[in-house]
Amino acid sequence: MLRETVRALAEAKIAPFAAQVDEEGRFPQEALDALLGADLHAVHVPETYGGAGADALATVLVIEEVARVCGSSSLIPAVNKLGSMPVVLSGGEELKHTYLGALARGEGMFSYCLSEPEAGSDAAGMKTRAVRDGDHWVLNGVKRWITNAGVSEYYTVMAVTDPAKRSKGISAFVVEKGDEGVSFGAPEKKLGIKGSPTREVYLDNVRIPASRMIGAEGTGFATAMRTLDHTRVTIAAQALGIAQGALDYAKQYVTERKQFGKPIGDFQGVQFMLADMAMKLEAARQLTYSAAAKSEREDRDLTFHGAAAKCFASDIAMDVTVDAVQLLGGYGYTRDYPVERMMRDAKITQIYEGTNQVQRIVMARNLP
Ligand code: CAA
């Protein structure tokens, strides 16, 4: 029922703008309005804090169905979860009521600030500093590759509070867009997900109350990694959705396109391609849904399964979208058809929330 509801909403209110959003590189406000109107913008927020209280699998379904029509728009529910998960996992009650409540009410979106210009895969090598000053913390530094930066109101920022301790000297904070000293870089010019702004976040003597620290001092890196355990599953969901959109389009196309006197879908070479695409996608879906169940239960082996789902589903999304372009031939290579956009959008799922090489490090360190 949830899938049908989100699919109908996505097709009616998000799909019509997907090509334009990509072409113009503009934020999909129509998608945000539609998701807010249906209370689907941040379904993971627990009911205690005014949210829909959707479990991890339901959240995956929402992201998957939005991604099926527009990869950029699926980053609204996905990054709202990524940005706010540190608060869900480690925040005190007051912080949860304030920020999860605001997110659930649609007062602002959440972004996640871990990466820096010189600290991507080596996240613990970050330089952004937070220094205690009475009952405040003062933050200075640059965060890079921040999804939805500028359009989000709230930012989870990981910063060094004790440089001598590397990962154990990192703490997490909530920073607001309106805090003095917060500003943003120019939007990155990207290959895909062009509707979702990716910008640097500059923190210039940003003074925030100590109550905005998420969890205890020194636990920020562990919180950031625990967050990714859960949200790599949502990137897998985005990958599934993008791939499903491309497969659905190609499946229909081959029944209409005629060559040699019959629909190209009648040729076994084309049928075999579609069979392989659907088979791989279904395998990725099962891995993702099982990882979602582990996320919901916070199973001990979530770290492996979250990384495996993200790695496998994103690789499959790339394969499937490339094959969809191939099935449409020259038409697939043009912007008159949606599959080249889907192929460009799929690529990032192999890179963000940890490259697929990092996923293999994570899996190898956490073999089941
Ligand atoms: N759960 C809980 N704690 C964890 C953990 C986990 N999954 N993983 C690590 N930790 C904690 C542990 O306490 C560990 O300490 P112990 O030695 O006591 O166990 C501590 O963190 C340090 O862990 P590591 O020694 O494993 O740290 P490392 O420096 O070797 O790094 C890494 C490991 C896996 C490579 C990590 O740096 C990593 O995941 N890198 C990729 C970062 C990433 O995914 N960035 C994406 C940013 S989000 C994004 O893409 C933006 C967007 O907007 C979409």
Automatic annotation (TrEMBL):
Q: Which family does it belong to?
A: Belongs to the acyl-CoA dehydrogenase family.
Which intervals of the chain form a coiled coil? none
Q: Which UniProt keywords apply?
A: FAD, Flavoprotein, Oxidoreductase
Which SUPFAM superfamilies does the UniProt entry name for this protein? Acyl-CoA dehydrogenase C-terminal domain-like, Acyl-CoA dehydrogenase NM domain-like
Q: Is rRNA-binding set as a keyword in this record?
A: no
The protein's matches in PROSITE patterns, at most eight in alphabetical order, are given as:
ACYL_COA_DH_1 (PS00072), ACYL_COA_DH_2 (PS00073)
List the InterPro entries hit by this protein, alphabetically. Acyl-CoA_DH_CS (IPR006089), Acyl-CoA_Oxase/DH_mid-dom (IPR006091), Acyl-CoA_Oxase/DH_mid-dom_sf (IPR046373), AcylCo_DH-like_C (IPR036250), AcylCo_DH/oxidase_C (IPR009075), AcylCoA_DH/ox_N (IPR013786), AcylCoA_DH/ox_N_sf (IPR037069), AcylCoA_DH/oxidase_NM_dom_sf (IPR009100)
Q: Which cofactor does it need?
A: FAD
Q: Where in the numbering of this chain does the Acyl-CoA dehydrogenase/oxidase N-terminal domain appear?
A: 1-107
Acyl-CoA oxidase/dehydrogenase middle domain location = 112-206
Q: Name one Pfam family in it.
A: Acyl-CoA_dh_1
Its protein name is Acyl-CoA dehydrogenase
Acyl-CoA dehydrogenase/oxidase C-terminal domain segment(s): 218-367
Q: Which organism is it from?
A: Streptomyces physcomitrii
